[in-house]
Queue: 2 jobs
Job 1
Amino acid sequence: MWRDLAPIGRDAGSGGYRRYAWTAADADCRAWFKDQAESRGLTYEVDRNGNQWAWLGDPEGTDAVVTGSHLDSVPDGGAFDGPLGVVSSFAALDELRSRGVEFTRPLAIGNFGDEEGARFGLACVGSRLAAGRLTVEQAHALRDGDGVPLPHAMEKAGYDPSTIGPDPERLARIGAFVELHVEQGRALDLSGDPVGIASAIWPHGRWRYDFTGEANHAGTTRLVDRRDPMLTYAQTVLAARREAELAGAVATFGKIVVEPNGVNAIASLVRGWLDSRAADQSTLDTVIAGIEQAAREQGERDGVDVRVTRESFTPVVEFAHALRDELGRILGGDGGGIPVLGTGAGHDAGILSASVPTAMLFVRNPTGVSHSPAEHAGEDDCLAGVTALADVLEGLACR
Ligand code: HGY
Ligand code: MN
Ligand code: MN
């Protein structure tokens, strides 16, 4: 499975993945998922929001156990973020079948669309729509970098955008959702464990900063006469780092668009996207407010207009304690226990946690690197993840 999926959407130059929502690479990933489902005799379906499902047992049944993750990537993302959860789900099902277990609850494997928000800027669109945490109007207002509306992109990919919207009936049929994901950090590497259980997801969001100055000639405009948005942007990036350090949070400007983006032209507009996350809401609020204040003060000094728009936000997620503890009991093994760890990374399991009892398993990432072509997890640890997921699914859905 891994070898079949690996070449899809991989950039030959960077070695990273460019599997953006509703693109050709996304379509190829979706075709791979459908093939994996049907080759196992699972009932394949696509829901009203374009999420893919592979069912063992009655898709209309209740109290289903669902696993899976996402197949889309960030720009030049790694091979494991998302796909490890989906491949491990199919492999865990194969393992359960080889164990000859009897399923007492419907089981499904999901591929949730557009988890990374790389193209339209909002994280977890597929699961947010299903959970009613993104309205149809908000979804229709999403545009990619070329101004293509989300509905058009879906249509072009062969999906009917008129059906998108909350899917409470579907979520009501799910008794537990367990997502396996490569760890995006080094906690398991430091603790020496191949697998861990998630406790919580930090609150996090994305804010778009528009710095509007005045285009002019780079060679003939005196410094005192400039209204250069690049200056305000640069000071804001430094302020973000300062505020995050002070608060023990994280803040990142990783994406920037400059207009007109000419070497010998003072920019008229600089658009920068801030990603910030903190262990609790009040800390995050403090960091965001501090950055915005610094940006506005610098804008005053530079004669640059500053406009801030929150584009994506996910409140703190505390995974369901009962399900978390059930996983701990199932995987506790020789009593050595299994690490329970928080994360700053968002996931579909976080978005769905308001509607469905959800839990996550993390697989050791020896370097902790993620959202990079260098992202990697060792095969032994990935197989340990499959075994752990199979044990969890057996404990939840089989007798
Ligand atoms: O950004 C995140 O935390 C996740 O990778 N979508
Ligand atoms: Mn990711
Ligand atoms: Mn992910």
Note: The CA atoms of residues 78 and 373 lie 4 Å apart.
Job 2
Amino acid sequence: MRLLVVEDDADLNRQLATALEEAGYVVDVAFDGEEGHFLGETEPYDAIILDIGLPSMDGISVLEKWRREEIKIPVLILTARDRWSDKVAGMDAGADDYVSKPFHMEEVLARVRALLRRSKGHASNEIEVGTLRLDTKSARVTVDGTTIKLTSHEYRLLAYLVHHKDKVISRTELVEHLYDQDFDRDSNTIEVFVGRLRKKIPSDLIQTVRGLGYCLSTNENEV
Ligand code: CA
């Protein structure tokens, strides 16, 4: 899952990016409204964390512009504690949720998890596909109740497929959602990681759909 953090406070931006990366996301960062708006309109993020008070273009304007452009990426806004009007303006501009500053990082992480699972159509943090279960809160994967050890790359790939279970996902989409903008994007890498994952989970769960991509599913006939 790939996220964008738009926050002009360099320390806070770094803290957010670090915490989100540790939680298993890929994170791009922007430090002003124009840069943030540009990235949000050109890159296919899974969710965006957007500060309201930003130089060059304020967060509300950035959000309004995205929504006018039909960009539907879920957005969590960061608001100053006593500015209730920012929360109202932000939600009306198309934000999906908000966190007031100062916040506990755990709250941001929980709200991001909720945004992601809702936007992908899941009600719970635990998503099951056959005997495989992914807990997005603890980033734990089990098969038949046994924990499977995954590298961070393998986890990100599996989490993306699990969130989009029963859907065919192209290699291009995987590359776009699993690596940040500076990554040298080579879709052969995806094949290597899929191969490694298949050795760790029931191998028939990830199906190759020739010419289209991959599908994580227990139902072979639907693909
Ligand atoms: Ca700010």
Note: Residues 126-216 form a domain with the Arc Repressor Mutant, subunit A fold (CATH 1.10.10.10).
